[in-house]
């Protein structure tokens, strides 16, 4: 489900894109467990193949409390993966990981961070 304050649809031949801005909210339900992942951003693009790009203050929240912050992501409809080639910060209750680039399943259960550094709380 996608909501935004403003949307414009563009057609070029067979291709269609929907540009959304003014604050974008995307809810993705995992096929594996049915739990939602929430994405907010300043603006985005929905491509005719249902791939999504999100820009500007992107925040991804999963049901387990994981929060990812970055400036840009893509969500591929076919493999249902979320990716970024920008700086990311991933925060969980006991750790913070930073890196340049990541990829994750849409439930944010399995993810890879490229060029990572981080902090963890030990008890």
Per the principal axes of the C-alpha atoms, what is the gross shape?
globular
Rg is: 15 Å
Q: Can you tell me the number of structural domains?
A: 1
Straight-line distance between termini:
39 Å
Average pLDDT, all residues: 86
**Major beta-sheet overview:** 9 strands, antiparallel
Q: List the helices and strands in order.
A: EEEEEEEEE
The CATH superfamily is known as Lipopolysaccharide (LPS) transport protein A like domain
- CATH level 1 class label: Mainly Beta
Approximate helicity band = under 10%
Q: Please work out how many helical segments DSSP would assign.
A: 0
Task: Find the structural class using helix and strand composition.
Answer: mainly beta
The low-pLDDT segments are none
Strand content: over 45%
Extended strand count: 9
List the helices and strands and how they pair.
Layout: E1 2-12, E2 15-29, E3 36-47, E4 52-61, E5 67-76, E6 81-92, E7 95-105, E8 111-113, E9 117-120
Antiparallel strand pairs: 1-2, 2-3, 3-4, 4-5, 5-6, 6-7, 7-8, 7-9
């Amino acid at each position: 489900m996608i909501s935004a304050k403003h949307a414009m649809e563009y057609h070029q031949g067979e291709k269609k894109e929907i540009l959304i801005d003014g604050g974008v909210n995307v809810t993705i339900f995992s096929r594996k467990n049915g739990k939602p992942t929430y994405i907010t951003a300043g603006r985005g693009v929905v491509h005719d193949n249902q791939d999504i790009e999100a820009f500007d203050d992107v925040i991804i929240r999963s049901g387990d409390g994981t929060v990812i912050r970055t400036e840009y992501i893509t969500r591929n409809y076919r493999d249902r993966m979320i990716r970024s080639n920008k700086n990311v910060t991933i925060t969980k209750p006991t750790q913070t990981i930073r890196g340049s680039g990541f990829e994750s399943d849409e439930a944010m259960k399995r993810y890879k961070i490229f060029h990572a550094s981080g902090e963890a709380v030990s008890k």
